[in-house]
Structure formats: C-alpha cells, structure tokens
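Pasting as-is:
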Amino acid sequence: MTSTGITNWPAPARLTVGVVSAGRVGTTIGQALERAEHVVGAVAASSPASRARAAQRLPESEIRAVADVASQCELLVIAVPDDRLASVISDLAESGSVRPGTIVAHTAGAHGVRVLDPLNDIGALPLALHPAMTFIGTEEDTDRIRNCCFGVTAADEVGLAIGQSLVLEMGAEPVRIDEKDRTLYHAALAHGANHLVALVCDAAAALRKVVDGQDVRPERILGPLLTAALDNSLQIGPKALTGPVARGDAAAVARHLQALTAADPGIAEGYRALARRAATYTDPPPDLVELLGDDNPGDNDFGNDDRRDEHR
C-alpha cells in the first residue's frame, strides 16, 4: 500500500480512542471523532469541572487514570496545555502504558511531533493535530470545528495521510505544517486571535466612557463595524484599511492619541502601535511617519501606487 496522497489512502478503520484530558479541546475532539463513528472508550479527567464536562459530552466513555486510558486505545489524543505536554508524554513513556502501533496525536499548536519522541521510540505513531479554533466548552465547539482548519504535522507520509484522514472525518480541513514551521504557525494564530480580543476589549472600554448612562452597550455599536472589517480583511487584505491612517491624516491620528491618552494611556499606547503597523500597508506621508515614530513604515510591498487613494 502506498501513501501517494490523501485521496489514495483509506480512511482509518473505526478506532478505539482515549482522550487525555477532558478539557474544552479534548472533549470537542473526542465528540467529533465519535460523530465520525470512532469510539471514545475512556477519558482522563481529574478536576470536578473536567469530570462534569466528560459526563455531559462523552457520556458513554469511562473516566480512568491517564495510564489506563493510554493502555486501552488505538488512538490516543493528548489535549493538555502546551506547558504540560512534555511532562505528560514523559510520564506515559515511563509508565509503559502506550502500546507499539498506537496512534498518538497531541493538539498543541506550538509543538510538532518531536515532542512525542519518547513515545515514538517505543513504537507509537506520532501526530500533531492542532485545530485553528478557539473553544468555549460547549456542543457549539464540535459544530464549529467542521468549518476550521487543523495544522497537521507527522513524522512521515504515512502518518501525514492518517492525520489528514482523521481531520477530514471530523469534517475539518487538514493543512500540512512542517515541523520547523510550528512556532511561526502558532505565533500567527495567537497574534490574530488573542490580540484581536485585546483590541476589541480596548475599543469597547474607550467607547464605554462615551455611552455611559445610555441604554446601549459598546459591543452593540462595535459589532457590525468590526464584523464587516474582519470579513473585508479576510477577503481583500490590506485594501480593507479605512480611516485616518489609511488616508494619511496625521492631524486626525494626533487628536485620537490625545483623546485616548486622556481616557486610558494604555489604550493610547496600543492604538499607536497598531497605527504604526497599519501604516506599513499604506504609503504614509512624512508627518504621519513622524507622529507614529516608525523609521520605515513603508517596507511592506503591497503595491504602493496611490495607496492612500485606495483607502479613502
């Protein structure tokens, strides 16, 4: 049997799955695999919240110790925080509970398959399957991953084909991420998702000072605007930029910075940093460059011709 590509490789047989542990990601992956007709036989859940989550979302799965979960499965999903992953893998390797031939997949974004070397050395098949999605711990998560991508890293083409098949079975889209690129991959996702949350919260905090006492939430005002801006950014990239930085209006940006500094210097600092970065996607005039304090704001090559006109 050859592994010339995902279309030539059969989907895995129905597998007995073990999940470590029953956090938001682990229960979501377990539930998605069960929807694909795999069987989550056991799950590790130590805290009361994890046990409750497992009971609700994986009600037919036994709650067992980590070593017991690993010893009874054909596919072991390790869904623990990034900073705990290496120690969990080390403990599993020392316990001897993982059988040769077991598919072991972790869900940490920052790591590839090298972190699984202790289990690879005893005959496990290592995979890194990271869902590019944020989780809230409800059934909605399982529905959402059907529309997301998974970063897939494997030790060889056979492992890659198996990982891709598992992702496809969950209804998601596999994207191959080389081992050497995992940190950059993870940084890009964290920058986009985590810092977006900080940006939205800052904007809402500033706006709250304006609408205080009125029967309207800042999020209600921001929602349509931010939704449109995000959609436009994903569709057309830097051409979605609008506003004073895109127009090169240094006077307006200066007034913004003054008002934000009076309201909250931290928010003003964030505005300045992002405005400086936004300017690299335009052709900023000298007075805006000086205001924002960037030595080389036009380094990005996105076609500088009349870019300010494009953003008016």
